[in-house]
């Protein structure tokens, strides 16, 4: 298979989400990935496909975690494993697709930020005067291929749809790929286990991306539509902030944006991208 030069080798060989499986149709659907026009859908045999239109090239595809993934280069690894997704008592909740006029790294960075909870998600994920981000632990795992923040805690008035009151929520953040990030948080109804919220970001152009949030929840009773609406409310609040950030591309050079102690995960994510040689959707 002829390889087409890619603008960013650091991400060309990664797997990227391009659609929820619920939106696969028999008629081809248009999308973009790294400035390239793609089509996706089901072929005549009912199998999913993705095609690089300009170069008339079929791309590898895999169905995983409720989404269709593709790779514009040559896959050098597998799609990140989410062990909780295999647990039989969890519900997969596809929260839809959000097109956001900012870079993919900006969206990931926002997902990793706890400091904005009381001010953007007021009376849901946070509220004044409980605004302090307590110190947490940062670590690299899987030989540096993943970045984690553990021992995160934040008081939340309504941590999840199933919550009946405010709780001190324990968090772990996992960056499993440049545009693949997950949040493990206290389940209100089963405090010894965690709900999992995944965010798969599709870089369409340098300054426009689509976010695909998928949840793996321990909630047997809430209607699916209510779970989706709860998460969509939070994400639409984030979109307003994200589309007003400047520059739209995430600065990786030290000193361009001044961090605080609460921004340690953001700083670590930027350093992690820089160490991988990332340039797409960033400024250096």
TrEMBL record:
<dbReference type="InterPro" id="IPR050584">
    <property type="entry name" value="Cholesterol_7-desaturase"/>
</dbReference>
<keyword id="KW-0560">Oxidoreductase</keyword>
<keyword id="KW-0223">Dioxygenase</keyword>
<protein>
    <submittedName>
        <fullName>Aromatic ring-hydroxylating dioxygenase subunit alpha</fullName>
    </submittedName>
</protein>
<feature type="domain" description="Vanillate O-demethylase oxygenase-like C-terminal catalytic">
    <location>
        <begin position="100"/>
        <end position="274"/>
    </location>
</feature>
<dbReference type="GO" id="GO:0051213">
    <property type="term" value="F:dioxygenase activity"/>
</dbReference>
<dbReference type="Pfam" id="PF19112">
    <property type="entry name" value="VanA_C"/>
</dbReference>
<dbReference type="InterPro" id="IPR044043">
    <property type="entry name" value="VanA_C_cat"/>
</dbReference>
């Amino acid at each position: 298979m002829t390889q087409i030069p890619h603008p960013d080798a650091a991400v060309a060989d990664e797997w990227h989400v391009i659609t929820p499986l619920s939106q696969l149709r028999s008629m081809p659907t248009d999308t973009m990935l790294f400035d390239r026009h793609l089509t996706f859908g089901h072929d005549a045999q009912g199998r999913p496909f993705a095609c690089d239109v300009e170069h008339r090239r079929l791309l590898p595809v895999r169905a995983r975690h409720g989404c269709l993934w593709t790779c514009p280069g040559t896959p050098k690894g597998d799609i990140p494993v989410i062990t909780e997704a295999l647990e039989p008592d969890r519900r997969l909740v596809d929260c839809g697709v959000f097109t956001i006029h900012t870079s993919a790294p900006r969206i990931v960075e926002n997902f990793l930020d706890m400091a904005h909870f009381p001010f953007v998600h007021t009376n849901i994920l946070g509220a004044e005067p409980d605004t302090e981000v307590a110190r947490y632990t940062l670590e690299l795992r899987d030989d540096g291929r993943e970045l984690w923040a553990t021992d995160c805690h934040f008081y939340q008035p309504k941590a999840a749809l199933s919550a009946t009151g405010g709780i001190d929520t324990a968090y772990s953040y996992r960056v499993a790929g440049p545009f693949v990030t997950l949040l493990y948080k206290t389940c209100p109804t089963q405090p010894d286990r965690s709900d999992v919220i995944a965010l798969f970001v599709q870089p369409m152009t340098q300054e426009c991306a689509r976010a695909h949030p998928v949840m793996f929840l321990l909630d047997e009773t809430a209607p699916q539509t209510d779970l989706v609406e709860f998460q969509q409310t939070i994400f639409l609040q984030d979109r307003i902030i994200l589309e007003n950030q400047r520059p739209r591309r995430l600065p990786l050079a030290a000193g361009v944006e001044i961090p605080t102690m609460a921004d340690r995960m953001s700083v670590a994510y930027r350093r992690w991208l820089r160490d991988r040689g990332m340039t797409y959707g960033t400024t250096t």
